[in-house]
Design a protein that fits this description.
about 500 residues, alpha/beta, Rossmann fold, seven-stranded mixed β-sheet, 17 helices, about 25% strand
């Protein structure tokens, strides 16, 4: 039941860090029984504003009211006492505990001073059922997929009966089917009167789930509007201060002969009998629901996981990569899904990260040739418009989009014939998405073959020349560009399509 009563008022919030003004006079009102989206590019101030709401940061200026009463929070515990719960993009769970223990972490039920495990498991099962999942509450969390762990994180917040819940990119690791389940849960929470703040780069999701949307840019509030009166194009224009006429531009490229050929590839566990090829100058999409085997296929091609059957050919020659080094020698590069965990070395500079795959060629007599490494990093920082354009800056201080550009630069320095991109625009803002696809467009125009794994169907439909859809470890016959539609892809991904 939608309420006109404000759950939250943040008035004229400013936040000053040494040398940086992160927020400048931001005001936000969120009502009980509504979903209020906050959108903006990376660096717009969304995370800082939410850290102030949670009590992690204190504002330099401004005030906060919860249900009409002014409050001051000195730490996250104060925010939780006020009924504020955060669901972060980075999971905040304990892998070695069970699902039930994670859901009630810090709030485990007791009986006569002892943990009441039966009650905890029953309550966790109830919460998970309401979320529409079939996750076993007794299962060890670390044994679940990333998407299942994300649902457990949401269940943890939901189980605390919040008055205000903040979700930061909650669908970043979920398939469209799983996101649909989440949206059903959010609507239930909204109808129960909970105020929901929803942060996402996926503008179509915002239009689908939100009642109102606030746009931030450069630490300032640009506008708040009802979602019923705004379009994705409007939001992009407000977010970036310019028109982005085509978020996923389709590059023109001459498609040549096969670079990668995969025939009846299997790993005996996640996928079987997978066959497709990728040609020079072509972008082939590999899509399907989370858990369908897409990433496992990519990892097998790159030598990161085992293969039990099948053949891989690069430019007509049979190869059998047993390690990434083998794959790189064959001309294969792989940009992984987990940018922070697998794509970068956070403690190193942009220069050091870009030079990693070709460190041998940059080394003489056991010493790295700094001048060559600096020249390489400057070249790619300029070519890919990495901001700030300082190769000596620690890569972890860059925005997600600029980190991803650096990861692309790192692998392109190795001059691959095949580039595998696993969710290349996940968790980056709309401007960076456009930049990344422009870079990919340049690469295919130069003759590089691209295999792109993506869960975003608009992205797949816009940029791919052909699409391979996976369902439960099996790959359908590739769809040609003129055959593509969201309905056909989803039918194949859910096992309902017929070829």
């Amino acid at each position: 039941m939608t309420s006109s009563r404000p759950a939250l008022r943040m008035r004229d919030i400013s936040k000053q860090f040494p040398g940086v003004r992160a927020l400048s006079g931001v005001s936000l009102t969120v009502r009980f029984g509504t979903v209020h989206a906050i959108v903006g590019e990376n660096g717009a101030g969304k995370s800082t504003l939410m850290k102030i709401l949670s009590g992690t940061y204190q504002p330099t200026a401004g005030s906060i009211e919860i249900d009409g009463a002014e409050v001051r929070m000195h730490n996250p515990a104060d925010g939780q006492k006020l009924g504020i719960r955060m669901v972060h993009q980075e999971l905040n769970l304990v892998p070695d505990l069970t699902v039930a223990e994670n859901v009630f972490l810090g709030r485990m039920p007791t009986r006569r001073g002892m943990l009441d495990r039966g009650e905890m498991v029953r309550n966790a099962a109830r919460v998970l059922k309401e979320l529409g999942t079939v996750i076993d509450p007794n299962c060890r969390l670390g044994d679940l997929t990333i998407s299942q762990q994300q649902l457990v994180e949401i269940a943890k917040a939901y189980a605390a009966a919040p008055r205000i819940i903040v979700l930061d990119e909650p669908t970043s690791s979920l398939s469209e089917h799983e996101a649909g389940i989440l949206f059903g849960v959010l609507r239930k929470m909204r109808d129960a009167g909970i105020a929901i703040i929803y942060i996402s780069h996926r503008l179509r999701e915002v239009l689908d789930i939100a009642d109102e949307v606030t746009v931030l840019r450069d630490g300032a509030m640009i506008e708040t509007r009802p979602v019923a009166g705004i379009t994705a194009a409007d939001m992009i224009r407000l977010m970036v201060g310019r028109d982005v006429s085509d978020l996923f531009p389709k590059a023109e490229a001459v498609i040549g002969s096969p670079v990668l050929e995969v025939e009846n590839l299997s790993d005996g566990e996640h996928f079987a009998g997978v066959s497709f090829d990728v040609r020079a100058g072509e972008i082939v999409g590999l899509t399907g629901l989370v858990g369908a085997g897409r990433t496992e296929v990519a990892r097998a091609i790159f030598g990161l996981s085992k293969r039990t059957a099948g053949t891989i050919r690069m430019r007509g020659q049979t190869v059998a990569p047993k390690s990434p080094a083998d794959a790189m020698r064959a001309g294969i590069a792989y940009v992984p899904e987990d940018r922070k965990g697998d794509g970068i070395v956070p403690g190193m500079s942009v220069r050091e990260n870009i030079g990693l795959p070709i460190i041998r060629s940059l080394t003489r007599m056991g010493w790295i040739k700094d001048s060559d490494e600096k020249q390489l990093a400057k070249h790619y920082a300029k070519r890919f418009s990495i901001v700030p354009p300082d190769p000596e800056r620690r890569i972890s201080t860059l925005s997600g989009g600029n980190q991803q550009k650096a990861v692309l630069a790192k692998w392109l320095a190795a001059k691959p014939a095949l580039l595998i991109l696993d969710e290349p625009t996940r968790g980056v803002d709309v401007g960076a998405k456009s930049d990344i696809h422009a870079i990919v467009g340049e690469l295919v125009a130069e003759g590089i073959a691209v295999l792109m794994i993506s869960s975003e169907l608009p992205e797949v439909l816009a940029v791919c020349d052909r699409v391979v859809v996976m369902h439960e470890g099996n790959a359908a016959k590739p769809l040609m560009r003129d055959e593509l539609s969201e309905e056909k892809i989803m039918a194949l991904a859910t096992g309902e399509g017929v070829q």
